[in-house]
Design goal:
By secondary structure, the chain is of the alpha+beta class. Helix content is 57%, strand content 14%. It holds the Pfam family HTH_18.
Length: 780
């Protein structure tokens, strides 16, 4: 009874499989094998000749493409090297540098040469040769040359100002000469005194040349204008092959082309062309054996015949074993789908494919469920894509590719335009106005959420970006026929009101001009990031529409308070910190009183810091040591509050400097110089001398002169002269006094006044007065 049950199950299994699978498998094998067999025979008997011609043409086309690539590599080296030699660093100033004493200049040249050497993988070495009184060579370090080396490098200057390629073998350890590009220095001089020499890596250049003939037993050569081989790759193992090839190329007058060439009973496909180099022309020649070109098609045709014949033979044999062997994966798939019980399979249909179909439908339903869950993550994907787009990470993508990706994420871009908005929170550093003084990330997150909630009610398509630095951006997508400027301004007002009420901060919103190109989206975001600096430098709510700003802008005349700056510098020299604080406030008040843009005020305070830093350097103190390596320019550029700027100047810049200076300087000496400066300012119109001032303060002229230079930063006589000339300039512009009277009023005789005024200003007093009067009339 047991054996009977086993036999019955086997019969059912065999009958369930039936002949459907086996017959289908046999038919498939026959259909797949016979056409392949016929195709292989036809290709082998009739197609080799035609395919050979096509492959030769294709090979020539590929060689041209690779030759263009090689040409671009050498052209890049020429252009990049030429770019460097036009740098002011490689000008006539190199003649006047003592590279032993001025080691920083030598170090800078070494860094520049190292940068040039690493700019391209074909560059092996770069050298700077200077034919000075004592010729030197940077390679890239400083080297002194012997007589033999001097002769060699001077020979490279024989072509004058001409940039040229040479065969070069000066480097140690080089067995064979390689190519080098020579750029005379200075390039604008008729009589160059040096050269920048860029040497090509011979091994890498040879590997690049070999790409023109990617077959075994081929050859590739590079010839100069004199038909001399400057680079060669010959794997034919025939020494006379190159000479025969050069002779054959000489018979062709065309600049480029291809032709067959037979040598020692072997047929080659020859391709040649020209490279246009600076002041020269090169010729490349590629020789590929025809057997290497046609070998793939012969191999493929034979392989098709073998595979097709084998498949036809296997079709007969394997059909008898299909129920046992080939059917196993299908049965395993069905078992995994519906379970181990064979009897339960009958409810799905007649055969296994009906079962698979039914199960596929059930799995599709589950897949749809998973797809719905994944759709919930699309928002995060969209935000990530927009952030990368705004940051410019997709600059190499084409417009259509970017549009396709955005449409994939669900945006409708048909007939759509784009506008960018930037939100900048201000007042964050004011503890009286802000309750989130220690968490700018949280504040930005809250502002971003406010923008998103309000935008949902006003725009069909938009995306808000959190920059986490007290600023946020928003991309608005709308139909290009619609005008949404009014809607954008209403949105800005709503966001401003909400941020003021909830976060207690002020808002500056910048609106870009529109664009219809996805690739320009990063640029309009850069516009609004830059454009927000045109805001008035006050802690108030502002909306900057760049389209209206550029069309309706009325420039306010900018006035830099030079006089106040001079008073600040003078107060710093004397160390009067209380007076400095008053002057700093007056300086910023003069800037902000005209309601000019933030960008101009930031430039003005950066200029003031530069003047203060100059004074610090002049006193012998390095700012990097004084401020412990902090980037003071970056700190200042991030401050957007006038009171914070005043506090920063007094407490972070000037106070540390005065404390350091007072530790080094005699305060009594400072008071003496202050007395002398006061006397000069009160008596500059009279005869005043260093000796008289020294007698008055009770010291000798030499000590007073040295102390005056140390503390005031200028010589006694130069300070007196500058003061008198400045007073004379004011009288020339603001009064109608005669020049003789002006000379006497500032303490000079008329003839000497004309001479000293022209020396200081560059023009005589009368001409200076006329120029200023003409300029005032034009301004009026």
């Amino acid at each position: 009874m047991l054996f009977k049950n086993i036999d019955t199950k086997k019969v059912k299994r065999f009958q369930w499989k039936g002949n459907f699978h086996r017959n289908s498998f046999i038919l498939i094998l026959l259909i797949a094998s016979i056409p392949g067999l016929i195709t292989g025979l036809c290709i082998y008997w009739f197609g080799v000749g035609k395919v050979e011609d096509e492959l030769r043409a294709s090979n020539a086309s590929q060689i041209i493409q690779r030759a263009n690539n090689m040409d671009e590599q050498f052209q890049y080296i020429e252009e990049y090297t030429t770019h460097w030699v036009f740098e002011p660093r490689f000008g006539d100033s190199l003649k006047n540098i003592d590279f032993v004493k001025q080691f920083t200049e030598a170090y800078d040249i070494t860094k520049t040469l190292s940068l040039l050497q690493g700019s391209h993988n074909l560059i092996s070495d770069d050298e700077l040769y200077l034919n000075l009184d004592n010729p030197i060579l940077f390679k890239p370090q400083y080297n002194v040359l012997d007589e033999k080396q001097k002769i060699f490098y001077n020979s490279l200057l024989s072509k004058g100002t001409e940039l040229h390629w040479v065969e070069y073998s000066q480097s140690k350890g080089r067995k064979s000469p390689t190519l080098a590009f020579v750029s005379p220095i200075p390039v604008t001089s008729k009589d160059p005194f040096g050269a920048l020499i860029v040497t090509i890596d011979h091994k890498k250049a040879l590997e690049l040349l070999k790409t023109l003939t990617p077959y075994e037993n081929g050859a590739t050569i590079l010839l100069n204008e004199q038909n001399k081989v400057i680079l060669s790759s010959n794997s034919t193992n025939q020494s006379n092959f190159i000479n025969a090839l050069k002779k054959e190329i000489g018979k062709h007058k065309e600049k480029s082309g291809s032709f067959p060439f037979e040598f020692n009973h072997i047929m080659y496909s020859i391709s040649f062309g020209h490279f246009t180099r600076i002041n020269s022309n090169w010729t490349y020649v590629s020789a590929s054996p025809m057997s290497s070109i046609t070998a793939p098609i012969v191999f493929v045709s034979r392989l098709i015949i073998i595979i097709s014949a084998s498949a036809l033979f296997l079709a007969i044999i394997l059909s008898w074993f299909t129920s046992v062997k080939i059917y196993a994966p299908v049965r395993k798939l069905v078992r995994n789908l519906v379970g181990e019980e064979t009897d339960s399979w009958n409810k799905y249909g007649k055969d296994e494919f009906s079962i698979i179909e039914q199960q596929w439908m059930e799995m599709t339903q589950k897949s749809d469920l998973l797809e719905n869950r994944l759709s919930e993550q699309v928002k995060e994907l969209k935000n990530s894509f927009i952030y990368q787009l705004v940051q410019g990470y997709f600059f190499h993508y084409h417009e259509e590719d970017l549009r396709q990706r955005m449409e994939t994420y669900g945006w409708n871009l048909r007939n759509r335009s784009f506008i960018a908005l930037d939100l900048q929170l201000t007042g964050f550093n004011d503890p009286k106005e802000n309750i989130y003084t220690n968490d700018d990330g949280l504040v930005t997150f809250m502002a971003t959420n406010i923008m998103g909630e309000i935008a949902k009610e006003m725009f069909e398509q938009f995306n808000v970006i959190n920059f986490s630095d007290l600023s946020a951006g928003m991309l608005v997508i709308y139909h290009h026929d619609d005008s949404i400027r009014e809607e954008l301004h209403r949105f800005s007002e709503n966001v401003t009101e909400a941020v003021n009420r909830i976060i207690k901060l002020q808002v500056t919103i910048t609106i870009s001009e529109k664009t219809e190109s996805v690739k320009k989206i990063p640029y309009i975001f850069e516009e609004v990031r830059t454009g927000k600096r045109f805001r008035t430098f006050e802690n108030i709510n502002q909306v900057i529409d760049l389209e209206e700003y550029r069309n309706n802008r009325n420039d306010i005349e900018f006035h830099y308070p030079f006089a106040t700056e001079k008073e600040i510098i003078q107060a710093i020299r004397i160390g009067q910190l209380d007076e400095i604080e008053v002057l700093i406030k007056r300086f910023t008040q003069e800037l902000t009183s005209r309601e000019i843009s933030e960008i101009y005020i930031q430039q003005a305070v950066i200029q003031l810091y530069s003047s203060i830093q100059h004074e610090i350097l002049h006193s012998g103190i390095h700012p990097n040591d004084l401020f412990e390596g902090k980037n003071m320019y970056e700190e200042l550029s991030q401050i957007r509050n006038v009171d914070r700027i005043n506090h920063w100047f007094v407490n972070d810049v000037i106070s540390p400097y005065i404390q350091r200076l007072e530790g080094r300087m005699n305060l009594e000496l400072k008071r003496i110089i202050e007395q002398v400066v006061t006397k000069i300012q009160d008596n500059y119109m009279h005869d005043i001398s260093l000796e008289s001032c020294a007698d008055e303060v009770g010291t000798n002229p030499y000590s007073l002169s040295k102390a005056f230079k140390q503390i005031a930063g200028i010589n006694f006589i130069d300070y007196l002269t500058q003061l008198r000339i400045e007073k004379a300039k004011e009288l020339l512009i603001q009064s109608d006094m005669k020049i003789n009277d002006i000379a006497e009023s500032v303490g000079y005789r008329h003839s000497y006044f004309n001479r000293i005024f022209k020396k200081q200003i560059g023009i005589p007093p009368s001409q200076y007065r006329k120029l200023k009067q003409d300029a005032n009339q034009m301004r009026v």
